[in-house]
Amino acid sequence: MHSNRTTKLYAVGVDIGGTKILILITDQSGRVLFKKRVESTGDLERICEIINAALKEASIAHHQIMGMTVGIPGHVDSLEGIVKNSVQLGWKDLNIKAYISRRFSFPVFIKNDVNCAALGEKWLGNGENSSHMVYISLGTGVGGAIIANGSLVEGSTYSAGEFGYITDSDDIKKGIDSDWDQYGNLERKISGFALDEKARQIGLTARELFVEYNKGNSAAQEIIDSFIKNLSLVISNLVNILNPEYVIIGGGVSESMECILDPIKSYVKKLTMFPTKIRLSKLGGEGGAFGCVYNVLSGMEDSTEQEEGISKKLEKDKNEKGD
């Protein structure tokens, strides 16, 4: 039953972002054999060409590949492979899996990019293979992912982890509603976009805010203190609801957050009685691509276990009939 599997040597991860596409090819142990970053595009045919070119450059044939996961920003139905909405790529109600699968002879999986980043951190990052983890992505917007009891939680409509739309009583008082076509209520407070807006008002960039915060700039400290409190409140509520072992913070904003990690931990400790480990992302911008690879490898492991289980059952039935 496993004779054909020996030729399936490689896993492919493709992380499509708003500005770049990162392609990783690994062996069955997860060792990276090929890595390439190219400019992003919403042209599906061009994406397929980029993937094929990468395989050719890596000297890997289609029949040698176990599978490929493509991570996509936006609302993604991972079962059907349909992108419900991706503002960054200009896709809406598009069956990406069907399109890409027609051009490749190996299995193709489609997942939300933040979910992939969470899987990457769980596998090779600061999640340390935990079965209970929350991942918060602070980039231009705010995203998230939940791993509970070892499995990714995607929700009934594949929308679990949309932390950017978390609302509090102040938002209700202001009459702010949630709208897919606008930034979410939490995004307006702690996203890279929100920090950029606030930083411009005092003549700084978002990255400079953290530098000036460390220097004692009172205007920068006021903005970052508010950021710390809002993020800590969200983390505390997530910890109270989900009881994760780890909370991992990733995305572009996290690259500047080392200086405020201790205050966040202190706030969270005051706001929840449940212990959790709060860490910054270890894999950074490569987490999504590694998560894509992990999705392939873990899927193949599950298939192998199922095959072995079926084989054992058939063998047992055969022996019982023989008796």
TrEMBL record:
InterPro entries associated with the record: ATPase_NBD (IPR043129), ROK (IPR000600)
Origin, by domain of life? Bacteria
Q: Which Pfam families does the entry link to?
A: ROK
Q: Which residues form the signal peptide?
A: none
Query: Region (Disordered): which ranges?
Result: 302-323
- Ranges of biased composition (kind: Basic and acidic residues): 309-323
Protein family membership: Belongs to the ROK (NagC/XylR) family.
Q: What is this protein called?
A: Sugar kinase
* Taxonomic source organism: Geosporobacter ferrireducens
